[in-house]
Amino acid sequence: MTNSNLKKILADGVWRQNTGLVVLLGLCPLLAVTSTVINGLALGLATMLTLMASNLTVSLLRGLLKSEIRIPAFVLIIASVVTVIELVMHAYFYDLFKVLGIFIPLIVTNCAIIGRAEAFASRNSPLPSLVDGFATGLGFCITLVLLGALRELTGHGTLLEGADMLLGSWGQYLALTIVPQHPGFLLAMMPPGAFFGLALLIAARNAWQAREASRPAQPISTLVPNSNEN
Amino acid sequence: MNDTSHPVIRSGALLGLIALLGTTLLAGVNALTHERIAEQDKLRMLQQLNSVIPTGSYNNDLLADRIEVENEAFFRHTEPVTVYRARMNNTPVAVLMIVTAPDGYNGDIRLLTAINNDGTVLGVRVISHRETPGLGDPIEIEKSDWVLAFNEKSLRNTQVGDWAVKRDGGEFDQFTGATISPRAVVKAVHTALLYFEENRKPLFESTAIPATQNDKQ
User: Fold this and answer.
1) Which residues, 6+ apart, have CB-to-CB distance to B146 below 8 Å?
2) DSSP character for A24?
3) Of chain B residues 122-141, which have a CB less than 8 A from chain A?
4) Which of these, A142, A212, B86, B135, could form a disulfide with B178 (CB 3.0-4.6 Å)?
């Protein structure tokens, strides 16, 4: 597996095939928890860990998994991984566990994870599978954080509020109040705000993509390093 | 080896093996985290209880001195109400009741209500709710100090008609754009006080639930 292949996997996961913005998988947690940056980041990291662990396991077992049992086997593997993450969060990140609540176990139902297991990990060796899990998870995580930032900023006028839940007590110094005395913009905090925010992000990505496509001579955007190698 | 059951059995065994591996992993992680999780749950519960009752005013094991009462007609809710009893050298000091207001704008509002032995409210905190953010959520202490208005209230210093929001002729504030959430909270606190008034003796005297059942919180 060459370096450029791994880079391609990375670029696919983060940008070209971004789960949240292009493939549009896993929208339920994406829309539900992104009311703040920290909530988005936490669920993004948990999803990334799940993707990496499940991709790696599926890839290691791919020789054994016959096609008729692969789906139940994927489900078993993903469910085990998610439950481990849930237990660890409950024990060590209690506040965050309380906030994310039902959405941790619901990572199991994020079809992006079973999608990567089926489409990638079951056909590739462990290293690329791990990288694919990382890249897809990173892409998802970035989308969650961006949407969280958009909604937190418009909804509360703050950023990184509640960082202490994820990072320990020093995290509270990270919390930024961008707009003091923000009256609170209800629409951004409620589910419709998540839809509007996601639509804006998708539109922005499409606009970027269109601009890139309209000048093919230009070498590579900064976000897709070495995309022309493939 | 040439009948059709062979691949089925093989697949079944493989699937069973994966399930077994997954279960082993989970059992291991559960064994490692179980104690800490129970500890964390207990710690947070105690923190919450101590937010409405001064730690120096009692000296019993609050979490262990717990009963559950069921009275659907009274509480308008089927779920049992958890009651913690605070005592100082076995003298009753206060009860802390986890009551549910079933008539929130968006479902149940769970409240921790601490009632002193003389029938006055020590404090009220909202434990969980799904009220509209920005409209109904000033019932949380993190959002506003509205809930502190219950401190020192009792059935004696506040008449039956006054246990309502101002719009309904009572003495508790409502919020701009939200009357339903505060109305539900006021009603639930009042109900808890009425229940305490009628059942003070059995509340303090009934035997606590054995510790083994405490685990499931």
Assistant:
1) B138, B139, B173, B175, B182
2) -
3) 132-135
4) B135
Q: Which amino acid is at A82?
A: V
**Chain B positions in Cβ-Cβ contact with residue A172 (cut-off 8 Å):** none
Instruction: State the nearest Cα–Cα gap between A80 and chain B, in angstroms.
Output: 6
- Average pLDDT score over chain A: 84
| Consecutive H or E run containing B101 | strand B91-104
Our CA-based measurement puts residue A54 at a distance from the nearest CA of chain B, in whole angstroms, of: 12
ipTM: 0.70
Q: Kindly report the nearest CA distance between residue A35 and chain B, in angstroms.
A: 11
Asked if B214 has any chain A CB less than 8 Å from its own CB, the reply is no
For residue A134, how many other CB atoms are within 10 A of its CB? 20
Q: Is B119 left (phi over 0), alpha (psi -120 to 50) or beta?
A: left
Beta-carbon contacts of residue B208 (< 8 Å; ≥ 6 apart): B64, B65, B66, B67, B85
Is the Cβ–Cβ distance between A139 and A15 less than 8 Å? yes
Per the CB < 8 A criterion, the answer to whether A165 and A36 are in contact is no
- Rounded to the nearest angstrom, the minimum Cα separation between A25 and chain B is 26
pLDDT tens for chain B, 217 residues long, are 455 567 888 888 889 999 999 999 999 999 999 999 999 888 888 988 999 998 888 999 888 898 998 888 888 888 889 999 999 998 999 999 999 999 999 889 999 999 999 999 999 999 888 888 778 888 988 778 899 999 999 999 988 889 999 999 999 998 887 899 999 999 999 999 999 999 988 889 888 887 654 444 4
* A160, pLDDT greater than 70: yes
A73/B14 CB distance under 8 A: yes
| Token duo for residue B108 | 């149940």
CB contact under 8 A, A66 and B25: no
What pTM was estimated for this model as a whole? 0.74
For residue A1, the model assigns a pLDDT of 56
- What does A132-171 look like in DSSP terms, one character per residue? HHHHHHHHHHHHHHHHHHHHHHHHHSEESTTHHHHH-GGG
Residues of A in Cβ contact (< 8 Å) with B22? 76-77, 79-80
